[in-house]
């Protein structure tokens, strides 16, 4: 296949697994109580890392026909990785790794890889046409350790050389995966082994690029003296050798190996506070491949690689810690002014906003997160509050019916609470809807959280749930009131940054306030940005087009990565919302609406009074929701 029409930049072949990272930093693995689940495996990480660096990458491996296999496939797909040849193995389970972070030098890990899916790769899984569709093939050393996977790798390399692909090897030496340690000793990084050295040296000539740490070159070169090992590797291959030298950086060796390190230019590393070295090599490889495959020269490729590795060691996990292209480029453009990238506020914000799981170009959200209003309605109609959870399930059914009828693919959402709406939340989670949940105590001013500390709440929330926080605010509030509300909003914002949940900040002028000039909304948003709060979403009442112009300009200046604005309803009549939608239509930053009582208010009252059956309630609410969807689409035409 001609290089000009190749659709892939790099195919990664090797380990892909689920990583379970201990959340209690400093604990022995025996004492860890909870774990975070991430994409893992060296090749899986590199496929992910190169994709978010802008390359068209692919994963060639096997995963199990179960939840973990689907998790890996979905995670890779979201990053843009081609998974056409990520084969589902119906006879084996997906590989698993448990990892701990004891201190800066101790990282216990256990590989669960007995008869796992990715080690069942065979030559029959390798398609010549697929290999030929790429510019490069990247292999990790573990797949050279077993006969079947070794044969598969050699077949892929044969096709790669036949079709002119660049070939790269990350030595990726794990003694336990070569059978050199006890099964539970995944932490040991180096054990001398003549057979392993021989098996590696047999294939080194098949690669254009070989990458490893000093210890990994020790095993490839059969010597614990690094320069001697590199000379032995050079005798086996003409490949460019990139040797990682820890925090110092790396060296690139294209010809003869010198007798002294003084004769080798060092590509300087990036200084950071180390949290976790696991996965740093995969991030390094991702950055290096970006520069190498884009022909940017070794100096630039190593800048990418060193920075990627440094950023990952300062964060929890590997794949989710890897920088995106936007994030990495921003850092490298101002590297001299960022002595500690791991604590740089701008860089960490870029990581958060450019790593989002799903894009939402437009949203028509049905909000039924109301608690106090429905409890009051139940009392007014003589019903027990126990009926409210059932009502919310019926409202969800109406939302789903309307979304299907309106064709709201990837544009539908709900706001629902955990107090009365937990069953509805459970039912819709995982279906691809936008889902928001309130945390504020209804009607509280100053702001209070309904269920106490925000950090402890978010531990139990699915990551796809958006934190919605409503604050009644006025720029002329007493200083003490503003300070109290500001402090809690900052706490909420910081908790969302820590947990990875998105934040929707809903701002409403107090209902009983004497001054409701809509120009205050610009002032309030500007104030929140000055505090350092950058919510993913804003939720605001309908405003004039002139006010929207000012507010959207403010958001674009302060946080161009903002998800945007959603228009709230405040129980307004549908014709008033229609006019509000028309005022908003010309402003792309406004992504849609999140409206509730206008849709469900009267039908819910009649249902509680016994005037509507469940089916009639669903039908009436569906019609009201469809009406607003129609008004929004009408405005946006």
Automatic annotation (TrEMBL):
What are the EC numbers?
2.7.1.92
Question: InterPro entries from the entry?
Answer: Aldolase_TIM (IPR013785), Carboh/pur_kinase_PfkB_CS (IPR002173), DUF2090 (IPR018659), Myo_inos_IolC (IPR030830), Myo_inos_IolC-like_sf (IPR023314), PfkB_Carbo_kinase (IPR050306), PfkB_dom (IPR011611), Ribokinase-like (IPR029056)
Gene3D superfamilies to which the protein is assigned, alphabetical: 3.40.1190.20, Aldolase class I (3.20.20.70), putative 5-dehydro-2- deoxygluconokinase (2.20.150.10)
Keywords (A to Z) from UniProt: ATP-binding, Kinase, Nucleotide-binding, Transferase
Q: Give the GO molecular function terms.
A: 5-dehydro-2-deoxygluconokinase activity; ATP binding
Instruction: Tell me where in this chain the Carbohydrate kinase PfkB domain is found.
Output: 9-324
Domain (DUF2090) spans 327-635
Q: Does the keyword Nucleotide-binding apply?
A: yes
Q: Which CDD domains match?
A: KdgK
Major enzyme class: transferase
Q: Does the keyword Transmembrane apply?
A: no
| Similarity section | Belongs to the carbohydrate kinase PfkB family.
Protein known as: 5-dehydro-2-deoxygluconokinase
* Species this protein is from: Klebsiella pneumoniae
Q: What gene, per UniProt, encodes this protein?
A: iolC_3
């Amino acid at each position: 296949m001609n290089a000009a029409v190749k659709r892939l930049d790099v195919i990664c072949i090797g380990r892909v697994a689920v990583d379970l990272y201990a959340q209690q930093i400093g604990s022995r693995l025996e004492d860890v109580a909870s774990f975070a689940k991430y994409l893992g495996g060296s090749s899986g990480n590199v496929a992910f890392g190169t994709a978010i660096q802008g390359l068209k990458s692919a994963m060639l491996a096997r995963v199990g026909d179960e939840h973990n296999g689907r998790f890996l496939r979905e995670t890779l797909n979201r990053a843009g990785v081609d998974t056409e040849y990520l084969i589902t193995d119906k006879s084996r389970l997906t590989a698993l790794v448990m990892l701990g972070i004891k201190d800066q030098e101790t990282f216990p890990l256990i590989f669960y890889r007995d008869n796992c899916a990715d080690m069942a790769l065979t030559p029959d899984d390798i398609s010549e046409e697929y290999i030929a569709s790429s510019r490069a093939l990247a292999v990790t050393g573990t797949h050279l350790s077993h006969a079947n996977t070794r044969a598969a790798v050699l077949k892929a390399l044969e096709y790669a050389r036949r079709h002119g692909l660049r070939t790269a090897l990350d030595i990726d030496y794990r003694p336990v995966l070569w059978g050199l340690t006890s099964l539970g000793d995944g932490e040991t990084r180096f054990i001398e082994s003549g057979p392993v050295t021989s098996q590696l040296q047999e294939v080194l000539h098949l690669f254009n690029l070989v990458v490893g740490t000093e210890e990994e070159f020790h095993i490839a070169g059969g010597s614990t003296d690094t320069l001697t090992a590199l000379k032995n590797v050079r005798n086996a291959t003409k490949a460019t050798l990139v040797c990682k030298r820890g925090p110092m950086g790396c060296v690139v060796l294209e010809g003869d190996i010198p007798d002294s390190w003084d004769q080798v230019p060092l590509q300087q590393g990036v200084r950071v506070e180390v949290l976790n070295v696991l996965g740093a090599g995969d991030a390094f490889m991702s950055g290096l491949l970006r520069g190498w495959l884009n022909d940017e020269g070794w100096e630039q490729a190593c800048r990418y690689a060193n920075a990627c590795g440094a950023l990952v060691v300062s964060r929890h996990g590997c794949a989710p810690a890897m920088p995106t292209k936007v994030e990495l480029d921003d850092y490298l453009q101002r590297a001299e002014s960022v002595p500690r990238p791991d604590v740089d506020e701008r860089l960490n914000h870029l990581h958060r906003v450019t790593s989002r799981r799903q894009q939402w170009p437009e949203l028509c959200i049905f909000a039924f997160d109301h608690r106090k209003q429905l409890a009051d309605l139940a009392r007014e109609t003589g019903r027990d509050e126990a009926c409210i959870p059932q009502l919310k399930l019926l409202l969800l059914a109406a939302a789903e019916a309307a979304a299907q009828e309106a064709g709201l693919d990837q544009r539908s959402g709900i706001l629902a609470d955990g107090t009365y709406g937990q069953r509805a939340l459970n039912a819709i989670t995982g279906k691809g809807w936008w889902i928001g949940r309130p945390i504020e105590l209804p009607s509280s001013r100053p702001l209070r959280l309904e269920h106490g500390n925000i950090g402890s709440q978010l531990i139990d929330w699915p990551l796809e749930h958006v934190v919605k926080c409503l604050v009644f605010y006025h720029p002329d509030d007493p200083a003490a009131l503003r300070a109290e509300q500001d402090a809690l909003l900052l706490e909420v914002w910081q908790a969302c940054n820590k947990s990875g949940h998105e934040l929707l900040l809903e701002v409403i002028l107090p209902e009983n306030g004497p001054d409701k000039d809509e120009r205050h909304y610009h002032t309030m948003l500007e104030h929140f940005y000055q505090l350092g709060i950058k919510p993913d979403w804003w939720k605001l009442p309908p405003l004039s087009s002139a006010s929207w112009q000012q507010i959207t300009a403010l958001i674009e200046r302060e946080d161009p990565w903002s998800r945007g604005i959603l228009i709230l309803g405040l129980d307004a009549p549908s014709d008033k919302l229609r006019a509000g939608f028309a005022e908003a239509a010309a402003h792309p930053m406004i992504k849609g609406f999140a409206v509730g009582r206008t849709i469900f208010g009267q039908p819910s009252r009649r249902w509680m009074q016994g005037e509507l059956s469940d089916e009639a309630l669903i039908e009436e609410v569906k019609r009201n929701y469809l009406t607003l969807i129609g008004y929004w689409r009408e405005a946006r035409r």
